[in-house]
Amino acid sequence: MKLLFKQRFFSWFDSYDIYNESGAVIYTVKGELAWGHCLRIYDANGLAIGMVKERVLTFLPKFEIYLGENCVGCIEKEFSLFKPRFHIDYNGWNVEGNFFEWDYSIQDSRGYEIATVSKELFNWTDTYVIDVADPQDALGALMLVLAIDAEKCSRN
Protein backbone atom coordinates (compact mmCIF):
# COMPACT_ATOMS: atom_id res chain seq x y z
CA MET A 1 0.00 0.00 0.00
CA LYS A 2 1.41 3.37 -1.00
CA LEU A 3 0.48 6.65 0.65
CA LEU A 4 1.28 10.11 -0.70
CA PHE A 5 1.92 12.51 2.18
CA LYS A 6 1.53 16.08 0.92
CA GLN A 7 1.72 19.27 2.95
CA ARG A 8 -0.86 21.92 2.11
CA PHE A 9 0.64 25.03 0.53
CA PHE A 10 -1.45 27.65 2.34
CA SER A 11 -2.18 26.94 6.00
CA TRP A 12 -1.49 28.77 9.26
CA PHE A 13 -0.48 25.57 10.99
CA ASP A 14 0.94 22.34 9.61
CA SER A 15 -1.74 20.69 7.48
CA TYR A 16 -1.36 17.62 5.33
CA ASP A 17 -3.48 15.47 3.08
CA ILE A 18 -2.64 11.78 2.80
CA TYR A 19 -3.72 10.09 -0.41
CA ASN A 20 -3.94 6.41 -1.32
CA GLU A 21 -2.74 4.95 -4.63
CA SER A 22 -5.97 5.85 -6.41
CA GLY A 23 -5.71 9.52 -5.34
CA ALA A 24 -8.42 9.51 -2.67
CA VAL A 25 -7.75 11.35 0.61
CA ILE A 26 -7.68 8.71 3.36
CA TYR A 27 -6.22 10.83 6.18
CA THR A 28 -6.15 14.55 6.90
CA VAL A 29 -3.66 15.99 9.38
CA LYS A 30 -4.29 19.34 11.03
CA GLY A 31 -1.86 21.22 13.22
CA GLU A 32 -3.18 22.85 16.36
CA LEU A 33 -2.06 25.89 18.28
CA ALA A 34 0.08 24.47 21.07
CA TRP A 35 3.44 24.83 22.74
CA GLY A 36 5.39 22.51 20.46
CA HIS A 37 3.94 20.61 17.53
CA CYS A 38 0.50 19.07 17.91
CA LEU A 39 -0.78 17.24 14.84
CA ARG A 40 -4.22 15.63 14.90
CA ILE A 41 -5.02 12.89 12.37
CA TYR A 42 -8.52 12.42 10.94
CA ASP A 43 -9.85 9.58 8.82
CA ALA A 44 -11.72 10.08 5.52
CA ASN A 45 -14.98 10.61 7.46
CA GLY A 46 -13.51 13.42 9.59
CA LEU A 47 -13.22 11.29 12.76
CA ALA A 48 -10.15 12.05 14.93
CA ILE A 49 -8.17 8.80 15.13
CA GLY A 50 -4.69 9.80 16.29
CA MET A 51 -2.31 12.52 17.30
CA VAL A 52 1.42 13.31 17.33
CA LYS A 53 2.34 15.72 20.10
CA GLU A 54 5.74 17.19 20.88
CA ARG A 55 6.85 16.99 24.48
CA VAL A 56 8.41 20.34 25.33
CA LEU A 57 11.38 21.16 27.56
CA THR A 58 13.39 18.06 26.64
CA PHE A 59 17.08 18.03 25.74
CA LEU A 60 16.43 16.41 22.35
CA PRO A 61 13.08 16.54 20.51
CA LYS A 62 10.55 13.96 21.71
CA PHE A 63 7.11 13.22 20.30
CA GLU A 64 4.28 11.21 21.85
CA ILE A 65 2.06 9.07 19.63
CA TYR A 66 -1.64 8.75 20.43
CA LEU A 67 -4.29 6.42 19.05
CA GLY A 68 -7.56 8.05 19.97
CA GLU A 69 -6.85 9.61 23.36
CA ASN A 70 -4.39 6.91 24.52
CA CYS A 71 -0.63 7.44 24.38
CA VAL A 72 0.76 4.31 22.72
CA GLY A 73 4.41 5.28 22.24
CA CYS A 74 6.97 7.94 21.55
CA ILE A 75 9.80 8.80 19.22
CA GLU A 76 12.89 10.67 20.36
CA LYS A 77 15.79 12.08 18.37
CA GLU A 78 19.10 10.56 19.49
CA PHE A 79 22.37 12.44 19.51
CA SER A 80 24.38 11.56 16.38
CA LEU A 81 26.88 13.36 14.23
CA PHE A 82 26.23 12.21 10.68
CA LYS A 83 23.38 9.75 10.39
CA PRO A 84 20.03 10.73 11.91
CA ARG A 85 18.90 8.29 14.57
CA PHE A 86 15.68 8.02 16.49
CA HIS A 87 14.74 5.96 19.53
CA ILE A 88 11.24 4.60 19.03
CA ASP A 89 9.07 3.17 21.75
CA TYR A 90 6.24 1.94 19.51
CA ASN A 91 5.54 -1.67 18.43
CA GLY A 92 9.24 -2.56 18.68
CA TRP A 93 9.91 -0.55 15.50
CA ASN A 94 13.07 1.33 14.58
CA VAL A 95 13.90 3.89 11.90
CA GLU A 96 17.06 4.29 9.87
CA GLY A 97 17.56 7.33 7.63
CA ASN A 98 20.12 8.71 5.25
CA PHE A 99 22.36 11.73 5.85
CA PHE A 100 19.92 14.20 4.31
CA GLU A 101 16.97 12.73 6.25
CA TRP A 102 14.96 12.34 3.06
CA ASP A 103 14.64 8.56 2.96
CA TYR A 104 13.77 6.17 5.77
CA SER A 105 13.15 2.55 6.41
CA ILE A 106 10.87 1.52 9.27
CA GLN A 107 11.60 -1.99 10.55
CA ASP A 108 10.34 -4.21 13.32
CA SER A 109 12.56 -5.76 16.00
CA ARG A 110 13.31 -8.78 13.76
CA GLY A 111 14.50 -6.60 10.88
CA TYR A 112 11.39 -7.02 8.72
CA GLU A 113 10.54 -3.92 6.75
CA ILE A 114 7.29 -2.26 7.86
CA ALA A 115 7.52 0.69 5.45
CA THR A 116 9.87 2.74 3.32
CA VAL A 117 9.60 6.50 3.22
CA SER A 118 11.05 8.68 0.50
CA LYS A 119 10.84 12.42 0.02
CA GLU A 120 9.92 13.68 -3.41
CA LEU A 121 12.18 16.51 -4.43
CA PHE A 122 11.28 19.63 -6.41
CA ASN A 123 7.83 20.17 -4.88
CA TRP A 124 6.58 23.42 -3.34
CA THR A 125 5.71 21.67 -0.08
CA ASP A 126 6.96 18.63 1.82
CA THR A 127 5.85 15.55 -0.11
CA TYR A 128 6.65 11.97 0.89
CA VAL A 129 5.77 8.55 -0.47
CA ILE A 130 5.16 5.99 2.25
CA ASP A 131 5.20 2.40 0.98
CA VAL A 132 3.66 0.21 3.69
CA ALA A 133 3.89 -3.59 3.49
CA ASP A 134 0.76 -4.23 5.62
CA PRO A 135 -2.12 -1.71 5.37
CA GLN A 136 -2.79 -2.20 9.11
CA ASP A 137 0.55 -0.47 9.80
CA ALA A 138 -0.27 2.60 7.65
CA LEU A 139 -1.43 4.84 10.51
CA GLY A 140 1.56 3.95 12.70
CA ALA A 141 4.00 4.60 9.85
CA LEU A 142 2.26 7.91 9.09
CA MET A 143 2.60 9.03 12.71
CA LEU A 144 6.34 8.28 12.69
CA VAL A 145 6.79 10.26 9.46
CA LEU A 146 4.84 13.18 10.97
CA ALA A 147 7.07 13.16 14.06
CA ILE A 148 10.28 13.06 12.02
CA ASP A 149 9.05 15.85 9.72
CA ALA A 150 8.04 17.97 12.74
CA GLU A 151 11.48 17.42 14.30
CA LYS A 152 13.14 18.64 11.10
CA CYS A 153 10.87 21.69 11.01
CA SER A 154 11.71 22.50 14.64
CA ARG A 155 15.41 22.37 13.87
CA ASN A 156 15.09 24.65 10.85
Quick tags:
156 residues; mainly beta; 12-stranded antiparallel β-barrel; 1 helix; 12 strands
How would you sum up this structure, described in words?
The mean pLDDT is 86. 12% of the residues lie in helices and 47% in strands. It has one helix at residues 138-155, and strands at residues 2-7, 15-19, 25-31, 38-43, 48-55, 62-67, 70-78, 85-89, 94-97, 103-107, 113-119, 127-132. It contains one helix and twelve strands, in the order E-E-E-E-E-E-E-E-E-E-E-E-H. It has 156 residues and is mainly β. Strands 1-2-3-4-5-6-7-8-9-10-11-12 form a twelve-stranded antiparallel β-barrel. The protein starts with a strand and ends with a helix.
Present the secondary structure layout.
Elements: E1 2-7, E2 15-19, E3 25-31, E4 38-43, E5 48-55, E6 62-67, E7 70-78, E8 85-89, E9 94-97, E10 103-107, E11 113-119, E12 127-132, H1 138-155
Largest sheet entry: 12 strands, antiparallel, barrel
Structural class: mainly beta
Helical fraction: 10-25%
**Gross geometry:** globular
What is the tally of helical segments? 1
Stretches where pLDDT is under 50 for at least 5 consecutive residues are none
Number of strands: 12
In short:
With 156 residues, this protein is mainly beta. It contains one helix and twelve strands; from the N terminus they run ββββββββββββα. The chain has one helix at residues 138-155; strands at residues 2-7, 15-19, 25-31, 38-43, 48-55, 62-67, 70-78, 85-89, 94-97, 103-107, 113-119, 127-132.
